[in-house]
Amino acid sequence: MSQINIGSAQIRSVLEMALTRRPIAYLAAEPALIEANRSWLAPHFLEEGDTWSLNFQTWVLQVDSKVVVVDPCTGNGRPHPIPQFDRLETPYIERFCATGVRPEDVDYVFCTHMHHDHCGWNTQLRDGRWVPTFPNARYLFVRREYERWDPNGADYRAVDYNDGVYERSIQPIVEAGLADLVMDRHRVTPSLEIEPAHGHTLGHAMLSLQSEAQEAYFTGDVFHHPLQLIRPELQFGDCDDLAQAIETRRRLVARGLEREALIIPAHLPFPHAGRLRRDGETLVFAPATGATGSQPD
Ligand SMILES: [Zn+2]
Questions:
Q1: Which of 181, 178, 203, 183 lies closest to 193 in space, CA to CA?
Q2: Is the pTM of this model over 0.90?
Q3: Number of structural domains in the chain
Q4: What is the whole-number distance in angstroms between the Cα of residue 221 and the centre of ligand 1?
């Protein structure tokens, strides 16, 4: 578990799993770009042998006397075409409880989008049924994203790596009466607002936090590796709308610089977050210095 503080908000991570030592070549960045940025990329975001690691983790926020869960990972016991995600059995709930928060204490669950690794623990399997993991929470689903994944929705398009996710992780929440379908922009608490960040998926959103004049953005999969902020055209993996994804990254860069905000994406390894700054002509994503803790395993 790692901890980050922003104003009066306490932010803790819950790790489900990590994919380590991926070749940075997956990003298709030219070698000169990697060299030009090596000084701040290494050691956290560029590891030995020019590799990088992705965490699959949830953020647990305590702010405004509320507990908010962001992006509850893949979940246990689910079939998946990619072997590393197939039928996971991780001690996620035990790690979650180690934050001092119990699942029944959670007030809101927010999924930046509905890929398998961002909404899985919405539910868990009990007596052969998928039931809500956070029984007292309101689950905030952005309507545009919901309609993109609802098999009866106009925007629905199947992708094999998300097979069955709607049925296991979204539909049971709706049937339990715990889902709130919200607009692209939605105020959650005085400090927290959902905002559109489309592209990676059609209804992808981020959560912005403002507390005591400090700002942080939970950006989900707007980018997977910080080089994509330096060069927004770099793409990693599949994406619903590449042009929108690039535009969203550009907007995030402009705002992150202007507001000196801490940017906390879904998948970065420790210290999990960073701030954009200009170093002469060069744009730098400086790793967060305030995070404590490390990987739990
Ligand atoms: Zn993801």
A1: 183
A2: yes
A3: 1
A4: 5
Q: How far is the CA of 66 from the centre of ligand 1 (A)?
A: 25
Ligand 1 centre distance from Cα of residue 105 (Å)? 25
Span from the CA of 284 to the centroid of ligand 1 (angstroms): 23
| Cα 68 from Cα 10, distance rounded (Å) | 11
Span from the CA of 266 to the centroid of ligand 1 (angstroms): 6
- How many Å lie between the centroid of ligand 1 and the Cα of residue 280? 32
In 3D space, the residue among 20, 18, 21, 162 whose CA is nearest the CA of residue 90 turns out to be 18
Dist CA 267 CA 250 (whole Å): 19
Q: Is 149 helix (H, G, I), strand (E, B) or coil?
A: helix
Residue type, 4: I
Per residue of the chain (297 residues), give pLDDT as tens.
899 999 999 999 999 999 999 999 888 889 999 999 999 999 999 999 999 999 999 999 999 999 999 999 999 999 999 999 999 999 999 999 999 999 999 999 999 999 999 999 999 999 999 999 999 999 999 999 999 999 999 899 999 999 999 999 999 999 999 999 999 999 999 999 999 999 999 999 999 999 999 999 999 999 999 999 999 999 998 899 999 999 999 999 999 999 999 999 999 999 999 999 998 889 999 999 877 876 543
Q: CATH no. for residue 34?
A: 3.60.15.10
Distance 118 CA to ligand 1 centre (A): 6
Cα 2 to averaged position of ligand 1 atoms, centre (Å): 19
Contact 139, 178 (CB under 8 A): yes
Range of the domain at 69: 2-293
